[in-house]
Amino acid sequence: MVNEVCLRTLDLERPWLMEQYQSRGGYEVLKQVLTEKRAPEAIIEEVKKSGLRGRGGAGFPTGLKWSFISRNAPGQKYVVCNSDEGEPGTFKDRDILRYNPHQLIEGMILAGYAIGATRGYNYIRGEFWEPYERFEQALQEAREAGFLGDNLLGSGFDFDLHTHLGGGAYICGEETALLESIEGKKGQPRYKPPFPAHFGLYGRPTIINNTESLASIPMILEKGGEWFADIGVKNSGGSKLFSISGNINNPGVFEIPMGTPFSELLEMAGGMKDGRKIKAVIPGGSSAPVIPGEQMMDLNMDYDSIAGAGSMLGSGAVIVLDDTNCMVKTLERMSYFYHEESCGQCTPCREGTGWLYRVVHRIESGQGRQEDLDLLDDVADKISGKTICALGDAAALPVQGMLRHYRDEFQYHIDHQRCMVGAG
Amino acid sequence: MTDKLVTIEVNGQELQAEAGIMLIEATDAAGINIPRFCYHKKLSVSANCRMCLVEVEKVPKPLPACATPVSDGMKVYTRSPKALAAQKGTMEFLLINHPLDCPICDQGGECELQDVAIGYGRDVSRYSEGKRVVADKNIGPLIATDMTRCIHCTRCVRFGEEIAGIREMGATGRGEHMVIGTYIEKSVDSELSGNIIDLCPVGALTSKPFRFNARAWELTQVEAIAPHDSLGSNLNLHLRDNKVMRVHPKDNESINETWISDRDRFSYEGLYSSDRLTSPMVKKGGEWKEVSWEMALEMAAASLKEIGDGDQIGTLLAPTSTLEELFLAQKLMRGLGCNNIDSRLRQGDFRMDATQNSVHWLGSSLSDMDQMQTVFVVGGNIRKEQPILAHRLRKAAVNGAKLHYLNPIQIDLNHRGDQDVCTPGEMAGRLAAVAKAAGVKASGGGASLLGAAKVDESAKQTAANLKAADGALVMLGAMAQAHPDYALLHTLAAALAEATGAQLSILPTSANSVGAQLAGAVPHLQAGGTAAERAGLDTLRMLKMPRKGYLLLGVEPGRDFWNGSLSMSALQSADMVVAISAFRSPELEACADIMLPMAIFTETSGTYVNAEGRWQQSRGVVRPQGESRPGWKILRVLGNLTDQPGFDYIDSQQIHDELHKLCESSTLDNKQAEPQNLEPLLSADVLLRGGDTPLYACDPLVRRATALQQTQDAGSDTIRLHPQEAARLGLDGSDTALVKQNGNQIDLPLQLDERIPQGCVWISTGLARTSTLGQPFGEVTVEKA
Ligand SMILES: Cc1cc2nc3c(=O)[nH]c(=O)nc-3n(C[C@H](O)[C@H](O)[C@H](O)COP(=O)(O)O)c2cc1C
Ligand code: SF4
Ligand code: SF4
Ligand code: FES
C-alpha cells in the first residue's frame, strides 16, 4: 500500500507529462466537477471528511481552513501553493513537482473552484530549478488543454495559475512571509490575525496550502473523503510522503499510509547504514524535537503517535542519527540554521537565535560554562510562544528536545571540554 | 469601525472600550501603562518589538497588547508573573546587542529603552558575547545616526511609508544582520523628516543640530506656536540658560496631530545667528552708529512726523509678525494719516482688493481637510509651502480623494494625483477651461478667457470630480497668489467653486496672513477685518510709486519681496526708512536710516491666527537678545511719542483683547463681488520666468537656520529649464547663463530639469542672488553668459 495518492504515477515512464497523467485518469475529476457544477460546499465537505491535515508542518485540517473563506465575498480571491520546502531534511514536495506536477495543478484548480478564486500562485523554492521547469512545462500543457484560462471547459469558471520562484530564504516558506514575497516585498511574516483567509495576498482572501496538501485533492474528490481517511488512522487521514535521510542505506521519499510503524519506514529506507545502532530520530524536520532511537522504534508515523512522544510529525522529514553523532554538534548545526534564517523582525527571535547558537557553539568548542545549560533552557523558553511567526518556536524546540534527552552529553562537553562520542 | 462598546477587565479593573480597538489603546486611554517600543498611535501596527506582551485569560501564550483587539469579557493581566516574565524576556533580548553606554548617548535621560529597562531589565547582563556594531551613514544635515543603538522597531520606516509618503528608511539584511537605513548612502529629504527623531525610541536617530548640546534633564519645556506657515503648529520648546536648545511638537489633534515640519523644528537655530540686531542704530553720513533706545525712538518718531503727509509713507509689515505687532503698527500709521499698509509682500496682483470686504482664509477647518473628496490646487506646491497641511491632503488622497493640480512646474507628489503643467502665462486659460467644463458662463472678470477656453478631457475630469464630491475645495496656493494675474485666477477659481459646489480656499501663506487681515494690516481692511474707510496703497503700488518714507516691521528688503529689485530701489530712494527688525542684513543696512532691534519668536508674547481662523497665543519665554525689545513695546512708545491716544498698554494681552473685541462680529469669508474687466497682464507668448519661494527661503528666521540651509529644500540660486528649452535658447552645453529681468541682470548656474514647462525658465525667489532680479512670474531673457 504505497504511493496511493501523490506519487501514484511514479511507476510511469515520464509521469510529468499530460498524456501520462491522463492515462491514469488525471483531470477526470476536474472535468466532472466542472460539468456537473458540483457545489463548492460539497467539495469542502468532502475534504473535511478526508481528514487531510496540512502537510506543510502545522497539520491544520485543510477542509476547515477552506471553510474560513467567505466564498461569496465580492472581489478577487487567491489560491497559493507553498512549494518553498526549506525545512532542513524535507524534500518531498520537490518530488511532487518533478514527477506529478499535473496533479498539483488539478488540485489547485479544484481548490480555486471550491473557494471561488480565479487566480493561483505556486511559490517554488529558488533552488528548485528542475522542478520549476517541470512545473512550468506542465502549466503550459494544462493551458493548451483548456484546464487553465477563462471559462474552463465551458463551465463559466475562470482560473489561471502562475509560478513565483523564491530567492532561497527559509522564512519565505512561512505563509505570510511568502505572500509578502509574492507581492514583491521583503519576505517577513505578518502578524496574525488577520489570517490569510481574510487578509491574504494583496489583502484579499487567500488560502495557502502545502504542495502535498493540494496535490492530494484530486484523489480525495475522485475516490471520496472516506476512502482517503481510511488509508490512514484516526486523526491522521490518508497517506503521507516521508523524506527520510541520515545514517541510513537508502535515503529518499516514501509515500505510505499514516500510522505505518517507523520501523517499517526505516526498513523501506534500507535500514541503518553499516548496521550501526540507531541513536536518535528527528521525526518531522529540523524543528521537531529529537526522539531517542529506541523509543522511536515503537512509534507509528502519524500525528498522535509522534506528538505523544513529545515531538511532531511536521512536514514528514525524518532524520535518522546513528551512534557516531555528537548531539552537541548536531544541535550547533541546527541552531546555526535558525540564527541565519531568522528574518530579524521580532526581538526574541532576532536576538535569541543568535544567543542560542553562540552558547551551543561555545559548548561544542570546549568553552562551555556550568550555567550554560540552564541558560539555554531559559533563552529557549523566552523565545517560544513570544514571536510573530513560528520560526522562533522552531529554533527553541530542538534545543529543548536535545536538553530533555541528551543533557548528559552536553554536561560532559562542559565538564571535559570534549565530546563523549568518539567520532564527534 | 463600529461604535459598539465592550467591557474588558484589566488587572481587575473594569474598562469600557470601543469594539475592535487594540488593547493598548484601551489601556492607554485608561492610564494603565504597558511598555512598548514599536507601537505608535499614528502608525500601523507591526507588533515586532514584543515588549507589550500581556497575559489574557484562557490564552496560553502571552499576547501583544498593540495587536490584540479587545473583545467583550476579555480579562487581561499586564503585570502578572506570566506577563512580567515575557516583558522581562524581551527586555533582556533587546539589551544584549544594545550598547550599555548611556552616559555617552545623546538620548540618555529620555530614552524609552533606558526608561523601560529600569523597570524590566536585569542588573547584570548574562550575554557575554561581542555586541553587534553597525556602521553609521550620513543621512543629511538634520538627523544624526548611531545605528548600533537601533532596536529595529521600524517606527522610522513606517513613518516614511505611511506619513511622509516617501520610503526613505528601510530594513535591509536578515536576522541579527538586519540594518535600518537608507540602503544607499543618501540624505533623508522629506520636509517632515525630523519627526523620526521623536519616533525613534532610542538614540539611533537624534537631532544633528542639537546633538550633545544638552541633557534632557537640564531642559525646561514651554509651549509655543510655530511662526512660519499658516498652520500654527503647536510646539514644545526646550530651554536651557535662557536659550532655545531644540523644538518638539506638542500634540494637537486638530492642527498638527503629533507632527511638525522640519522648518518648525529647526528654524530656532536662526535665533542665534550672528546677524541679530542687538542695539538701536542710526545711519549718519553712511555710517551705522549705535545709539540709546531713547534717542533712536525719538528720532524715529520725529522723522515719521516730519514727513507730514501720511500718504507719503509706506508701511510694510512681515506677515509672520504677531497679531499685536500688526495691529499696533497699523494703528500707529493710520493715526499718522497713513493708509498705505500691507503685509502681503509676495502677492503679485491686488486687483481683488477693491471688492474684498471680508477676511480670506483656508475655507475649511484643518481637520476637515482629511475628509475632502476632491481638492483642486491651483498654483500650489503644498508640500513645500505648508508641509503639515500637505500631510492632511495626503491623508485625504490615501482615503481615496481625487487631487488635481494646476501648476507652472511639475511638482513631486507623495500621493496619487493628477498634474496639469503649463507655463505661467497659460495658467489662467487652463483654469478657465476647467471652469467652463463646470458650466461657468463667459461673464464677469474672466469673460474673455472663458470665451476662448478649450475644454479638454483633463478639464472635464477635474470639473466632474469637483462636482461629484461630498466635500471639495478649489485651493489657491502660494504660486497662484504670486501670479501677476492672481485676480483672474481668483475670479475663475471662485466661479468654478460656485459652479461645482466646492469651497474656495485661499491658502494663507504665512503664520499671520489671516491675522494681518483681522488686524487691519492690509490697505483695504481695517482692524476687525471689515472694509477700510479709506483704502491705501498695496505693497506693489507702494513700491512702484515710491514714498518719501517707510516703516518696516520684520521685513528684509530684497529677499522678502515679490519683486526684490523693485523693493530695493524704492526703499533706497526714500528720504527716511525706519526698520524694526530682529536681524540686520546688507540690504537692510543699505535701505534703512534707523534700525530698532526687535525681539522675535520665543522672546516675545503674541498671537497667531492660523489658516482656519484659530487664535493661538505664544508667550515670551527667553530674554530678548542684546537690547532688543518686543515689537509691541517699540510700537507703543512710537505711539506715545507721536502723541497718539490709546497707546497706553501695560501688556500685550490688552492689545490682544482690544483687537479681539473689534473682531467679535467679523467673519472669515472668501466670497466677494467680482471685479470687472480683468484682462491678463502676463503674456503667454514670451519667454517667462517662473519662480517659487523655496521652503527655507520664506522668512528672515528660517533663512538663518544653518542646518536647514544645508538641505535640498533651501533652494539654490540657479536657472532651471527644460533641456529642449535650453537647446532652443542656444544654451546646450553651457554651465551658466545671463538672465535679464526689469533692467537687472545676473549670471546664474544652469540646471536642466524636465519638470519645467517649455517656454519658461525657473528661478526661485527669496534667495541671496535671485532676489536682485524682479518678480517670480514675468518676462525674462536668458542668453549665453
Ligand atoms: C519558518 C517557517 C517555514 C515554513 N516553511 C514551509 C515550507 O517550506 N513549506 C510549507 O508548505 N510550509 C511551510 N511552513 C508552514 C506554512 O506557514 C503554512 O503553515 C503552510 O504552508 C500551510 O499549508 P498546509 O496547511 O497545507 O500545511 C513554514 C512555517 C514556518 C513558520
Ligand atoms: S519569529 Fe523570527 S522569523 Fe518569525 S517574524 Fe520573528 S524574527 Fe522573523
Ligand atoms: S532607527 Fe530608531 S526608529 Fe528606526 S527602527 Fe531603529 S530604533 Fe526604531
Ligand atoms: S509595542 Fe506591541 S509588539 Fe511592540
UniProtKB/TrEMBL annotation, chain A:
GO terms for molecular function: 4 iron, 4 sulfur cluster binding; FMN binding; metal ion binding; NAD binding; NADH dehydrogenase (ubiquinone) activity; NADH dehydrogenase activity; quinone binding. Its cofactor is FMN; [4Fe-4S] cluster. It is an enzyme of class 7 (translocase). Its EC number is 7.1.1.-. Keywords: 4Fe-4S, Flavoprotein, FMN, Iron, Iron-sulfur, Metal-binding, NAD, Oxidoreductase, Quinone, Translocase. It catalyses: a quinone + NADH + 5 H(+)(in) = a quinol + NAD(+) + 4 H(+)(out). SMART domains: NADH_4Fe-4S (SM00928). It comes from the Bacteria. GO terms for biological process: cellular respiration. Residues 328-373 form the NADH-ubiquinone oxidoreductase 51kDa subunit iron-sulphur binding domain. InterPro entries: ComplexI_51kDa_subunit (IPR050837), NADH-UbQ_OxRdtase_51kDa_CS (IPR001949), NADH-UbQ_OxRdtase_suF (IPR011537), Nuo51_FMN-bd (IPR011538), Nuo51_FMN-bd_sf (IPR037225), Nuop51_4Fe4S-bd (IPR019575), Nuop51_4Fe4S-bd_sf (IPR037207), Soluble_ligand-bd (IPR019554). NDH-1 shuttles electrons from NADH, via FMN and iron-sulfur (Fe-S) centers, to quinones in the respiratory chain. Belongs to the complex I 51 kDa subunit family. NCBIfam families: nuoF_fam, PRK13596.1. This is NADH-quinone oxidoreductase subunit F. It comes from Candidatus Thiodiazotropha lotti.
From TrEMBL, chain B:
Its EC number is 7.1.1.-. GO terms for biological process: ATP synthesis coupled electron transport. Binds 1 [2Fe-2S] cluster per subunit. Residues 4-82 form the 2Fe-2S ferredoxin-type domain. SMART domains: NADH-G_4Fe-4S_3. Residues 219-275 form the 4Fe-4S Mo/W bis-MGD-type domain. It catalyses: a quinone + NADH + 5 H(+)(in) = a quinol + NAD(+) + 4 H(+)(out). Residues 82-121 form the 4Fe-4S His(Cys)3-ligated-type domain. SUPFAM superfamilies: 2Fe-2S ferredoxin-like, 4Fe-4S ferredoxins, ADC-like, Formate dehydrogenase/DMSO reductase, domains 1-3. Keywords: 2Fe-2S, 4Fe-4S, Iron, Iron-sulfur, Metal-binding, NAD, Quinone, Translocase. Its cofactor is [2Fe-2S] cluster; [4Fe-4S] cluster. InterPro entries: 2Fe-2S_ferredoxin-like_sf, 2Fe-2S_ferredoxin-type, Asp_de-COase-like_dom_sf, MoPterin_dinucl-bd_dom, Mopterin_OxRdtase, Mopterin_OxRdtase_4Fe-4S_dom, NADH_UbQ_OxRdtase_75kDa_su_CS, NADH_UbQ_OxRdtase_ferredoxin. GO terms for cellular component: membrane; oxidoreductase complex. GO terms for molecular function: 2 iron, 2 sulfur cluster binding; 4 iron, 4 sulfur cluster binding; metal ion binding; molybdopterin cofactor binding; NADH dehydrogenase (ubiquinone) activity; oxidoreductase activity, acting on NAD(P)H; quinone binding. It holds the Pfam family Molybdopterin. It is an enzyme of class 7 (translocase). NDH-1 shuttles electrons from NADH, via FMN and iron-sulfur (Fe-S) centers, to quinones in the respiratory chain. Couples the redox reaction to proton translocation (for every two electrons transferred, four hydrogen ions are translocated across the cytoplasmic membrane), and thus conserves the redox energy in a proton gradient. Belongs to the complex I 75 kDa subunit family. Composed of 13 different subunits. Subunits NuoCD, E, F, and G constitute the peripheral sector of the complex. This is NADH-quinone oxidoreductase. It comes from Candidatus Thiodiazotropha lotti.
